[in-house]
Amino acid sequence: MKNCFIYLRVSTLEQSNEGFSIENQKRTCIEFAKLKGYHVKQVFIDDKSGRTTDRPALQEMLKIINKK
């Protein structure tokens, strides 16, 4: 079984209220990973704009990936 990470982000309350909440994203991504035969090693969550890559959880995930 292959490992994977999940990265979740919502930048506005409006997005969250329109069905793009972190919980909805998480559920969908975990279901997809299982369907494809992946083991989710870790879930990373940011609540910042996607305009830049200056997001703590994204940077943490990229640091882990780049160590491999």
CATH topology: Rossmann fold
Q: Mean pLDDT, rounded to whole units?
A: 88
Overall CATH class:
Alpha Beta
Give the strand order of the largest sheet, numbering strands 1, 2, ... along the chain: 1-2
Quantity of strands, as a count: 2
DSSP strand content: 25-35%
The CATH architecture: 3-Layer(aba) Sandwich
Helix content: 40-55%
Number of helices: 3
Describe this structure in words.
Helices cover 50% and strands 25% of the residues. It has 68 residues and is α+β, with helices and mostly antiparallel strands. A two-stranded parallel ribbon has the order 1-2. The protein is flat. Residues 3-68 form the Resolvase/invertase-type recombinase catalytic domain. Keywords: DNA integration, DNA recombination, DNA-binding. Pfam families: Resolvase. The active site is at residue 11.
Quickly describe the structure.
It contains 3 helices and 2 strands.
Short key terms for the protein model shown above:
68 residues; alpha+beta; Rossmann fold; 3 helices
SSE order and pairing:
Elements: E1 2-9, H1 13-20, H2 22-35, E2 38-46, H3 56-67
Domain Resolvase/invertase-type recombinase catalytic: 3-68
GO molecular function, one term: DNA binding
Protein name: Resolvase/invertase-type recombinase catalytic domain-containing protein
